[in-house]
C-alpha cells in the first residue's frame, strides 16, 4: 500500500494542471469492458430477506426519495475496520450506465449516508474494478463532488483505500492534484489484492461484488506460486492466554474467579468509567494502530495491563469495540439475528416484553456481558450534554459490534434495524434488565 501517490506519479508522468476534457480522453483498461459473471452480491439469506422486505437491493422503501439510487447498492456501510473506524464502501461496478443514473442524486445520497457517520472517524473503501466507458462519471462531476465534500466530511476520514487500481485511476488522481490538499492526499492508499485489505478490515464482513472477487482471483492466479503463498500465510494458533477472538465460555473457563464478564471488558469499562465519561466524542475516535495491536498482543500473552498508565481514553474505547467485534459469535448471538432485524414489526407496547424474551435465550456469559455493557453505556449517555454521545449515537457505534449475520457480511439493510434495536435496548434498559 502507498500513500505518496500524488507526488510520485506526478513526477513520473510530468502532469501539471488537468485539462478540462482530460477524463474523457483517458482510456480504461481493456479488461474493464469485458463481460463478467452476474453479480449476486454474495449476500446471506438473512441479508437477502431484509432486502426483499424493504425493496429489492435497497434498505429504503420504494417511495423514499433516494430509493432509485439505493437499490443499486453502490454505497454500503460495513461496520468497523480493525482500528475501530466506521467503514463506508463504494462499488464502481454497481454504477449503471450514464442514462440510467442521476449523478447529482447519487452525490446527495452519498452525502446523506456519510452524514450519519462523519462525526466519527471513518474509512472509505473504493472498489474500482467495474468502472467502464459506459458508467464512468464526467470530470466536471468528479470535480464538483470533491468540492461538495467540505471539511466536515474530510476531517474525520482517516484513510481512502482504492482496491484494484489501474493506470486510469492513478492518472485521474494526478489530474486532480491541484484540487486535492496534501493532507488528504496522504490518506490515499492503493490495495492491489483483497488479501491486502485484510490488514484494514475483515473482508468477510464486506459484501464484495462477485465481479470484484472474480477479478481478484484472476490476477492472483497470474502470480508465481511462491508469491501466492506469501500473500496467504497460515493463521497462527491461539495463545494459551488468548483474550481476543475467543468464545465467552472459554474465557470464563480460563478465568481464575469464574467471572462471566471477560477481563478486557472489565478493564476497559473500569478505566472509561473513571476517565472517559466527559470526553467529547468518546467511541467516535480511532486510536494509534500500533498501540491497538500492542495492547491486543499483551492481553493475548497474559500480561496485566493498566490503561491508567497509558492515559489514552480513545485507546481503551477502541479496544472495547475491537474485543466485541472479534468474538467468534456476536454478543447477541446468531440465534437472535432474524428476530432483531425484524424487531421494528413489534408493536410499541410489546417491545420490552419481546426484548426480555429474546435476551432470556442468551447464554449466561452473553447475558451478563451485555447487561454489564449496557449499564455502562447508560452512564455514558447520561453525560451526553458534555460527551455528545446520546443513546442514538451510541447505538450507531455499538450496534454493528453487538450483532452481525452468520456469514459476517454487513450492509445498510441490516445495520439500520440492528442500530434501532440497540437504541431501544438503551432507552428501556431499566425495564429490560429488571428482575
Please give a handful of descriptors for the protein shown.
435 residues, alpha/beta, 5-stranded mixed sheet, 5 strands, globular
What oligomeric state is this?
single chain
Enumerate the spans where pLDDT stays under 50 for 5 or more consecutive residues.
3-56
> What characterizes the major β-sheet?
5 strands, mixed
Measured as a percent range, the helix fraction is 40-55%
How many helix segments? 24
The helix/strand class is alpha/beta
Q: What overall geometry do the principal axes of the alpha carbons give?
A: globular
Strands in their spatial order, largest beta sheet: 1-2-3-4-5
SSE string: HHHHEEHEHHEHHEHHHHHHHHHHHHHHH
Give the N-to-C terminal Cα separation.
53 Å
Indicate the mean pLDDT. Answer: 83
The count of DSSP E runs of length 2 or more, i.e. the number of strands, is 5
Strand content: 5-15%
Radius of gyration based on Cα positions:
23 Å
